[in-house]
Amino acid sequence: MLDIEIRGGAEDLAILAKRLKETGDKGLRKELLSGLQRAAKPAKAAVRASVLSELPHRGGLADLIGGSLKVTLNTRSAGRNPGVRIWSKDSHDISKLNKGELRHPVFGNRKNWVAQVIKAGIFTDPIEQRAPQMRQEMGQVMRTVAAKIEAGH
């Protein structure tokens, strides 16, 4: 399992979530969470594109992992760690792949395995590259919701 959290603005999100809870406005809470998800969604596609382009194509490994890869977005507006979490749990060792370590059978022969070095960061790099833009968009969503709370929605 690989787990990445975008932390910038978590304190502000916690304060905003507390204010939302006080107002009891479920519509604004839904607007906040869907806006956070919308800001992070391009990272999911970027991770999949990175896997498809960076893993070896010979033997179909890129298609195999890219086709089965499930990248999940979770948003939390309450609790100790509010924020957006991007994670993936797959039958392949995603953490090792992300470190640049690939182990596979030679031409499908499961009795003969080799270690191959691949580009490190195929999962984390696309997310980290988009993190500043995601933080900016998430901040805008939070400011919009905060303004609606102040205005009495």
Précis, in short:
This protein is an alpha+beta fold.
Tell me what you see in this structure.
The chain is of the alpha+beta class. 55% of the residues lie in helices and 21% in strands. It has five helices and five strands; from the N terminus they run βαααββαββα. The strands form two sheets. A three-stranded antiparallel beta sheet has the order 1-3-2. β4 (101-106) and β5 (109-117) form a beta hairpin. The radius of gyration is 19 Å and the shape is elongated.
Compile the SSE list and pairings.
Layout (H helix, E strand, L loop, with lengths): L1 E5 L3 H14 L2 H29 L6 H8 L2 E6 L6 E6 L5 H6 L1 E6 L2 E9 L6 H27 L3
Antiparallel strand pairs: 1-3, 2-3, 4-5
Helix pairs in contact: 1-5, 2-3, 2-5
Number of strands: 5
The helix fraction, in percent, is 40-55%
Number of discrete helical segments:
5
Order of helices and strands: EHHHEEHEEH
Q: Whole-Å distance between the termini? A: 40 Å
